[in-house]
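[scheduler] slot 2 assigned
[scheduler] job type: sequence-to-structure, two independent chains
[scheduler] chain ordering preserved from manifest
[runner] begin chain α
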Amino acid sequence: MYTTERLGTDAYGLVRAAELLNGGEIVAIPTETVYGLAALPKNAHKLNAVKGSAPDKPITCLADDALSVYYTVSVLAEPEIAVPMFAKDLLESGVTAIFDVDGLSRGYRIPQNWVAQELLEQTGIVLACTSANMSGGAPAVDADEVMRVFGGRIAAIVDGGRCEHGIASAVVDFTVDPPNLIRAGVGLEPGELERIYKLYANR
């Protein structure tokens, strides 16, 4: 049982949040979509455990920029895989992109939120992150909601105010060709994926 710290977005709050993350803890962080439960990638299993999700449920990774996603997916993967160039535009609009990495479907997203970006800078290029809700529940959109659900169960919450959008990001599956829109949301609406894909295909 934790005494969950409620941290601000000042220098102390962000340094403390990074310290906890680097120490193996779970910290709730704001993004432009919904609040997320974040951890270092090696501690991603803790996120499913605290949410009551299946242990093998895939966890999305937040990255600081498209280059970091390309490096993680194309260079670290065995064997290396080709990442569609137009995925960069979608990633930079906040879309969650799913790639086949080492035989597993893994999602990556670039948060359009300065707090999340600052924590990525202080902890590394990638953080494992899942929406702040119990399995099957609605994602939290402010720190009070996170505290009601996860108070005493995670190390800290960074209070960045209410999320800008309050809904989840769009999700695009790049493990198939053409890519498939799994979920409309922030960054991409129904019909846009086909239009963007055709533009790049005709170049």
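[runner] end chain α
[runner] begin chain β
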Amino acid sequence: MPRTNPAPPVSHELMKRYEVIAQSLRERAGAGPLGPLDPFELARRLGVVIGYSRSLEVKDWSGMSKPLPDGRLFVMLHAGQTPERMNATLLEEIVHHVQGHTPVQIGPGGRSEYNEAEEQEARFSAAAALLPMKAVAQAVLRRDDPTRFAALHGASVELFEMRVKTLGLWALYKDRSPLPEGVR
């Protein structure tokens, strides 16, 4: 499938931009700075119409969106994906909409072309909205159980670990030696 506008390397400036987008989404959802964000509550607040389908394999697509004539967004989610993947997908589609990204064209063979830079912005911003920077850093420093932390935030462990890596906390995360007595 043809790509347009290749994604730039993930720089400090880009990461700051993604964090700002994420914070805006969290505010619009009524989520606090550290706690879980419910993507479906955000969708409700934004008037997003959600549909579900199983027409293709999950590996082929997880969701797509299209603006409706009345200005609202219609998001089609694959019904066969995990709730964690569905949360991330819904947020990614919302990011595409609020950032004014060009909708991906879908043809008989799947996506016909897409903007890699816009896909990167949606993916990283959605991850940052689900897993806020400060909350992830605190979890790493406290050596919280990643499975439990990710579940609390409606995310997969894989997405949590991606956030840990992009925040530059991977070495600290991998060193999960016990904390000294009384430190938590």
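[runner] end chain β
[qc] chain β: The mean pLDDT is 88.
[scheduler] slot 2 released
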